[in-house]
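Colleagues,

For the teaching module next term, I've prepared a clean inverse folding example: a structure given as tokens, and then the sequence designed for it. I'd like students to try predicting residues themselves before seeing the answer, so please don't circulate the second half yet.
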């Protein structure tokens, strides 16, 4: 694990803080809320959209001027003057610090600082972007929570992709990450399913389990039963009663239920393997909490707002506009909320865990559920309520066809995967028919087609999956990213290894050199990874990597690398390419996307 290094942004921030401390001697003080802003570099240093305005900028003189009875300009001048005395400035971090507009200060990193940074990338190699900033802080990430005896829906895939990417991002910053799949294997729906199942003959039951798609068969049974319930409502009561019986420990029902669970659980590993999601740290389905619920519900019943009505137990959350939240129904059976209460208590009280965060990667349609859940936990004074978060996932609409129903969300994941592979292979056959190991490459590229499409969108938004766009080698796509990395990799492979050792910090880059554009872009990687990890927003990493890839493509179409005649120039260019290649592959890896060496 890489030791935490100060990013160039943080170093710039430190220089600013040092200068502000010197200003103190001139009687300049910062008004609130500027000191609050100052604590975090991202709240204070901007990255100008036009690079000619520098790598970083601050408007603090503008903010602090009035408070100190000076003009912004005066304050900015004083600031720049004292900045000359701070060590970062003396060490050559900046080539220029200039005053712009009314009270803005722009910082231009020196080409030497940029070059040294690229050298550091190469030294750190695969560990670049990683830090031990949050060593020892534990985070629970709950993602990919399918429901037993029901087909997967796209939400489960999104949850797997976004959840796993966040898992990797958080881990890269030193967090101890714990993953849990928390599959849905409990609830009244099992009573309803069991009621239909019990009416089947022995042969009909066996036919379900010997079928190629037993989950689909079980789901059909469940759907049909719900249809029947519309005509014969008493069947619903029978189902409810069966679930109550199951909860009460009936052995025969348990045996049937266990079979539903076992056959469903078999379907998940191939899906997770394909996506490259490793085994979960813990795999605790909702039923795991069954034995804990009675005591937990008793505890809940004592909290303010809890109402008992016969066997029912609910929280009246009207006062905060969240309606009623049932933990136990009138028939005595527990609810989805009850299981989530027990889950949260278990996570809080597990002596092996000390969770700093408890994250649920779940679709937006469950926002109300989680609001109610967190509110009830707060009323129960469970500390985990304050560190729990619903990471909201919008809907990804799949193309009509065999993966999705009319509602657009029921999918057979393995078919979607196969179809993606098939289409990728078609493109490879067209572009690079002689490629060795085409099938394996196609699989990896296919993973990046789906993951990049998913992760590059803000996860809270809904969007449509579009084959043509997602498969394209141009534009913001997985294949484009892979292609860029492969192309850079092939330049590096073609160069003799002794040519790649240039220490860029010693190379005399001229002002305006094309390499500097790339070196400048590299500056943002660590900051973006850290911010994306903190906020569980992988799409920022995608946006950054895409811009870097575009800059890299622009660079090598304009500037000769291997064809450059001057050995020292060629070697310096190769070092720049190597640093970019490193960052692009580390970025993909951090998102859980396998890098393809050649395509
Ligand atoms: N299994 C549920 C579903 O597919 C999602 C579970 C979300 N996690 C939770 N702790 N409630 O709808």
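(Answer key — instructors only)
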């Amino acid at each position: 694990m890489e030791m935490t290094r100060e990013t160039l942004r943080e170093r710039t921030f430190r220089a600013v803080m040092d200068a502000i401390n010197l200003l103190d001697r001139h009687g300049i003080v910062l008004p609130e809320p500027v000191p609050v802003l100052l604590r975090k570099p991202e709240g204070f240093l901007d990255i100008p959209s036009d690079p000619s305005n520098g790598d970083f900028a601050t408007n603090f003189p503008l903010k602090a001027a009035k408070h100190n009875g000076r003009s912004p300009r005066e304050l900015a001048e004083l600031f720049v003057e004292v900045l000359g005395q701070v060590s970062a400035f003396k060490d050559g971090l900046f080539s220029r610090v200039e005053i712009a507009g009314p009270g803005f200060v722009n910082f231009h990193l020196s080409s030497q600082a940029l070059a040294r940074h690229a050298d550091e990338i190469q030294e750190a190699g695969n560990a670049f972007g990683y830090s031990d900033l949050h060593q020892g802080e534990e985070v629970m990430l709950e993602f990919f929570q399918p429901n037993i005896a029901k087909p997967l829906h796209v939400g489960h895939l999104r949850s797997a992709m976004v959840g796993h990417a966040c898992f990797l991002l958080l881990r890269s910053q030193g967090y101890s990450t714990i993953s849990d799949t928390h599959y849905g294997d409990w609830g009244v729906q099992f009573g309803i399913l069991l009621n239909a199942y019990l009416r089947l003959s022995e042969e009909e039951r066996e036919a379900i389990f010997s079928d190629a798609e037993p989950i689909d068969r079980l789901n059909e049974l469940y759907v049909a039963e719900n249809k029947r319930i519309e005509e014969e409502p008493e069947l619903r009561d029978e189902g409810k009663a069966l679930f109550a019986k199951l909860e009460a420990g009936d052995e025969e029902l348990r045996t049937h239920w266990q079979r539903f669970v076992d056959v469903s659980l078999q379907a998940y590993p191939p899906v997770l393997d394909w996506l490259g999601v490793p085994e979960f740290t813990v795999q605790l389905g909702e039923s795991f909490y069954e034995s804990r619920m009675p005591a937990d519900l008793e505890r809940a019943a004592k909290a303010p707002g809890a109402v008992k009505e016969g066997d029912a137990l609910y929280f009246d959350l009207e006062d905060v506009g969240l309606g009623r939240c049932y933990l136990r129904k009138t028939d005595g059976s527990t609810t989805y909320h009850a299981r989530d209460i027990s889950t949260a208590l278990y996570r809080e009280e597990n002596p092996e865990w000390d969770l700093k965060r408890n994250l649920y990667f779940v679709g937006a349609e469950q926002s109300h559920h989680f609001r109610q859940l967190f509110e009830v936990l707060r009323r129960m004074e469970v500390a985990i309520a304050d560190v729990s978060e619903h990471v909201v996932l919008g809907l990804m609409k799949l193309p009509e066809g065999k993966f999705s129903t009319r509602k657009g969300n029921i999918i057979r994941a393995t078919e979607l995967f196969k179809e993606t592979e098939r289409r990728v292979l078609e493109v490879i056959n067209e572009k690079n028919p002689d490629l060795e190991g085409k099938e394996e490459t196609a699989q990896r590229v296919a993973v990046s087609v789906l993951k990049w499409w998913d992760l590059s969108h803000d996860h809270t938004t809904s969007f449509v999956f579009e084959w043509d766009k997602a498969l394209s080698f141009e534009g913001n796509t997985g294949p484009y990213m892979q292609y860029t990395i492969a192309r850079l990799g092939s330049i590096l492979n073609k160069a003799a290894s002794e040519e790649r050792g240039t220490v860029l910090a010693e190379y005399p880059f001229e002002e305006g050199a094309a390499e500097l554009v790339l070196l400048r872009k590299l500056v943002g990687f660590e900051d973006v990874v850290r911010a994306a990890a903190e906020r569980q927003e992988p799409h920022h990493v995608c946006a950054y990597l895409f811009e870097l890839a575009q800059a890299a493509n622009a660079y090598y179409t304009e500037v000769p690398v291997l064809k450059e005649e001057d050995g020292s120039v060629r070697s310096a260019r190769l070092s720049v390419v190597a640093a970019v290649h490193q960052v692009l592959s580390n970025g993909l890896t951090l998102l859980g996307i396998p890098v393809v060496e050649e395509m």
